[in-house]
């Protein structure tokens, strides 16, 4: 099949590359000329394990190409995927300007039947708005060309995006059209061979499914952080509680790790957008608001613990950070807890000395050159001469540490472990002042 993808971010680039790898012909379009130029040169603008070689082999195989030309993009595929960003607006609602701009582009340039596939995470009712936008653009040209709009939300996780796309638990398509069902089946056939993964449902249900999934996962995280905060005050170790409840199959072990709050480009904005949608239909989203409020507070926990360790005075201190990305295996720092911490430290007059295996460039791009941000080449240099160490991201490389060595590096032996990577007892026995999240007497 010939397929066009609008947007070459985490979702668009992975979708386009995987569909090309499955044998389709794919043209990816982006308005960012720099991104497209880099992709054409074989350079991948994001870090995603396995993606670079897959892009290169499919470009070499002639199945994957990139363009900034909207006319070529609309002319290319019968399927037109919209995978552009839907960032939060000031009121928390999803900003649909990029999605609707693509819809307008399609309406202005299409010359034959198209299926427009909403892959971006968009509020319930967006398919109707996309449809209206395309129809209005066609009407402006005095044309009447048939098209359909369907919803095909994406569930991939950054860091495991290729595996999630190719081996996802389900492929959801919101449509009532038999023709669209047939075409979407053809598109995903290579990934639907082992067992039936395609779920067809109505468009609104598909749109809501994406928000419900992310809100559920965010709820599990905030719930566990609430329990961690309680455990801390009650003298219990939340890690033992986690194992205790995770063993119940009705609860399960995934997404119940206590920590310094969720970040990234999806959970924060999607919980807020769903809460906003609720208020638009006169429903008070008590639970969603609480999930968001607990997370907001949790992201401050690293700073609170550090400030307590230094009697509230962090001025002139150097704080080592291990991890900047919002989670391991990505360079994405959108809404990362590390940002909440760094900004609070700078406000307090401290210097940050940080290392992340992939997010250093992104950190520099966001904050620029500044005296109180020192980015170093590895985790060893990050702790050299620092007063304290904070773990913000649970990268595998950070899990094993020689505590005696660490104690010699830090001028005040304070560790704030925002991901509960270490055994508090072992850290304390080595003479470190260890502060985890919800680890009983570690506060
Ligand atoms: P991103 O910000 O990484 O990429 C979006 C891309 O769209 C950018 O390259 C931008 O230049 C491009 N763009 C903007 N306007 C355009 C236009 N008019 N035409 C062509 N390109 C345009 O975003 P992302 O993380 O890939 O997310 C895209 C959507 O998928 C969002 O709605 C997001 O919520 C959803 N989603 C993201 C993830 C994730 O893990 N990142 C997972 C599932 C769903």
Automatic annotation (TrEMBL):
Substrate binds at residues 155-158, 210, 255-259, 263, 327. Residues 320-424 form the UDP-glucose/GDP-mannose dehydrogenase C-terminal domain. InterPro entries: 6-PGluconate_DH-like_C_sf (IPR008927), NAD(P)-bd_dom_sf (IPR036291), UDP-Glc/GDP-Man (IPR017476), UDP-Glc/GDP-Man_DH_C (IPR014027), UDP-Glc/GDP-Man_DH_C_sf (IPR036220), UDP-Glc/GDP-Man_DH_dimer (IPR014026), UDP-Glc/GDP-Man_DH_N (IPR001732), UDPglc_DH_bac (IPR028357). NAD(+) binds at residues 30, 35, 86, 121, 158, 269, 334. GO terms for molecular function: NAD binding; UDP-glucose 6-dehydrogenase activity. It comes from the Bacteria. The active site is at residue 266. The keyword Chloroplast does not apply. This is UDP-glucose 6-dehydrogenase. It comes from Pistricoccus aurantiacus.
